[in-house]
# Entry
Amino acid sequence: MTAIRAFLASFLLAPLAIATDPDASRAGTIAHEQAGARAGNDAGPLLQLAQKIDAVKEDNKRKGKGKNKGKEAKPKGGSPPSGDKAEGKPRKGKDAQKSKPQARKQKEPEQNQPKDQVQPQKQDAERARRKDLDERRRELQQTKDNARKQKQLEAQQAKENALKARKDAEAAKQKAIQDKRDADAARLKAIKDKQEADAARQKALQDQKGKDGRASPRRPGKFDRAKADQEFERARKDAQRKGGSGRDETFKASKATKFETLRRERKVREAGSRDIIVEPDKRVIVRDDKRLFIRHDDGERFRRKGKEVRRERRKDGTWMVITASLAGALIYSILDDNDRVLRRSRRDRDGHEYVFFDDRRSYRDHYGPEHYSYIDLPPPIVRIPRDRYIVEYDRASPDDLFEALNAPPIEALDRGYTLDEVRQNYSVLERMRRVDLNVINFEFASWDVAPEEYSKLDRIAHAMQRVLDRSPGELFLIEGHTDAVGSEIDNLSLSDRRAEAVAIILTDEFGIPPENLTTQGYGEEYLKEPTEGPSWVNRRVGVRRVTPLLSREGWDDAG
# Structure
């Protein structure tokens, strides 16, 4: 039994020895074997069990030695192992217990040494990481600061540029205002100088006419046929001698003979202080102590393109004459017994009526063909450039022509006027702009326009048509002028016929309705160039729109 107790004690203490120290494990194994020998005979089956346990412990011991083999091969620090351990001899008793703390002390530096080395490495890595992070933060902050500074700089630059641009614009605006003021002042001065020069030329012309023994246009003397014949003959010889060189009138004997025949067929009568000269085609020239004017019948021009449809007597004693016009329209004219037109309108095929003028309110029964309405108005104040007030046709653009014909009066009117008042008083006409057709050349003593010159009127016809497209009821005046060569009577008759010839071409060649045109000749009374000799500048035909000058009183009354 004693042997069994010894075996069991060794069996129970062996695992603890193995767990704590390999040397103790070996001592326990030896004691276990000795105890087993002593109890061999008593144990029987227990011996087999103990053997199996010994086999398991041997196997565990071998595994434990394999784990510690690497540590023993490479010791770290401290003194080499003692001779007993090197020889593999197990220690017993107090030596084994004494070796345990030494082994623990030996293991502690071996375990602490890697920790002491890893900790500084981690700290260095952390410091490096923080340093790199701080560097990146500084770089990012520097980039942000640079971008902010660049943005502020650009904003400041843009602000300065905008301020400079505003200052430049304000300076340019002030300069433009000043330039406009200077230009306006220069134009006004030029207009004033021109008006003064015109007044001086007109005075010089009147003085010259007085020196030559010729009457002023405003105060003509008695009609002297013999003197008129002498002046005509002198002008004819002069034109024949020059032969139409340069801008002189071309002389053709056939044309001169035609006008000479007309002159011989004139009939003259006196009516008080007036001389009434009637030409073969019913033109009437009236000459008194104030001025000279001519009257003609526009109906002859209307009947060139259309026939007279009907003529009937009205209840008030006037005549209604209906004439066919272009595009199927009908022209309605109210005339007195002297063929003086009191009202004219056009009724289109769609029934729309356009009134061109209506002078019935100012008509008096005693008005004869020689009646003249004299209106003395001061010269208008021209506040626009001279070349816009009187437009030279050969230098004008299509828009210049349209603007001149479509413009309102250059100054306000105190009232409207009858058509006769407008045609017979140049001071009224001067309120409207004018286009001078300085491209048409008439032969001496002739009012015919050569066919090759028809095309020169294309641009003025186009400008008139543009105005009529906007306002079909407009009325244009075609005015004729001559130079001062020859007699006043001959020049007045020629100018009136030349204006009519241009109106006929505008209708026949370019389709301007005849009822939208009226004509008037002014002879040599209003010279553009103050000279008594031949002047191409003074031989001219002008065009004005006169609708704004006409009185509209009674226009809406039925015809």
Remarks:
- The first strand starts at residue 267 and ends at 271.
- The two ends are 170 Å apart (CA to CA).
- Residues 406 and 470 are 10 Å apart (CA to CA).
